[in-house]
Amino acid sequence: MSLTRGLGRRWTALLCATALMFASFTGVASAAETKQKQQAAQVNLAKQSTSAVLMDQATGTVLFEKNAHQKLPPASVTKVMTMLLILEAVGNGKVKWSDRIRTSENAASMGGSQIFLEVGEEMTLDEMFKGIALASGNDAAVAVAEHLAGSEENFVQMMNERAAQLGCKNTSFRNVNGLPVENHFTSAHDVALMSRELLKHEEVTKYTGVYQDHLRKSSEKPFWLVNTNKLVRFYNGMDGLKTGYTAEAKYCLSATAKRNGFRVIAVAMGAPTSPVRNAEISQMIDYAFANYKSEVLYKPGQVVQQVRIDKGGVPYLPIITTDTVGVLMKKGEKQTAYRQEIRLNEVKAPIQKGQIVGSVVIKKDEQEIAKADLVAGLDVGKASMWTLFKRTVESWLSFGR
């Protein structure tokens, strides 16, 4: 798409339309998505699980749901949020994969699934993360939480704050690993939201998609890791994310699979057995791949356009997406019915990074069905008189060539 030249004070609603196969995107509620949910409710899936959700990862569109907002104990599916906060800490430079994590007495005392850390034992964050992602190590989860936040309690507070930011309305965490405790709950829909955010860190599947690995390879006590999610070995395209089981929660799983660029998230909670859980997750994902197709058009932070800013400290402002912008269509649906419009507001310096400067609107047969914000990609101050003078001279020189 190209911008009309001379953008400045006069443009308030610049439109740039391109025919695209767009049905919904970035999880924005729309009439089309409501209809999608109504159709999904008629699908007979997840018969034995207490609750379930099937979601398109690129757009956040719910393709199927059953008791999606019911508050339930998640067991070790809790670690979806734990892993998200760890990856965000790596991403912002707070910690490195090579950093060594020391095991406290509290961390070593964790029961349930574990990698049998000893008090005072050290492992790299990379090794600890493997222990969390593959073996669901409760001890490793606490050790890393204490390292990042000073205490498990502080880390739990971070988990709840992040959940609220993601729009999780039926979630309350009380620990980092999902061991049974009062008032520790979430919902299938909230788990899907957390999982979608986690998958924005593409490196996570390098851990969750591995079937087996080792810890302490060079020591006298090597530890064999086998992924608790057996579907990564047996289901085509499966590469994550996290299983869970306690007597109270029963069998839970947040799973993701990708085929031909189409990634989906399936969550099942409260299944009676592991085979039933795996079968119902597989059936949900089969349904998605059989009936839909998806394409990612823009990743979070990707530049959509460059806009000229009169009297700005920089001449052009990158306009970026804040979330994944993708295409979701039912198979057999015509592409030509959909088109995209980029609408830009009047923008003058100074501008703050992250400031909303426009939106992407999706239309079907000229009817608006979805909308998402576009934001400024950097801070732009007012240009000095000297800067404006240099630009004028450069413009004259360029015109004379």
TrEMBL record:
Q: What is this protein called?
A: serine-type D-Ala-D-Ala carboxypeptidase
- Name the pathway: Cell wall biogenesis; peptidoglycan biosynthesis
Q: What is its EC number?
A: 3.4.16.4
SUPFAM superfamilies membership? beta-lactamase/transpeptidase-like, Penicillin-binding protein associated domain
Keywords of the record, alphabetical order, are:
Carboxypeptidase, Cell shape, Cell wall biogenesis/degradation, Hydrolase, Peptidoglycan synthesis, Protease, Signal
Q: Where is the signal peptide?
A: 1-31
Q: SMART domains this protein is in?
A: PBP5_C (SM00936)
Instruction: Please list the residue ranges annotated as the Peptidase S11 D-Ala-D-Ala carboxypeptidase A C-terminal domain.
Output: 292-382
Q: Which GO terms describe its molecular function?
A: carboxypeptidase activity
* Catalytic reaction annotation: Preferential cleavage: (Ac)2-L-Lys-D-Ala-|-D-Ala. Also transpeptidation of peptidyl-alanyl moieties that are N-acyl substituents of D-alanine
The organism sits in which domain of life? Bacteria
Sum up the protein's function in the record's words: Removes C-terminal D-alanyl residues from sugar-peptide cell wall precursors.
Q: What is the lineage of its organism?
A: Bacteria, Bacillati, Bacillota, Bacilli, Bacillales
* Cytoplasm keyword on record: no
* Family stated for the protein in its record: Belongs to the peptidase S11 family.
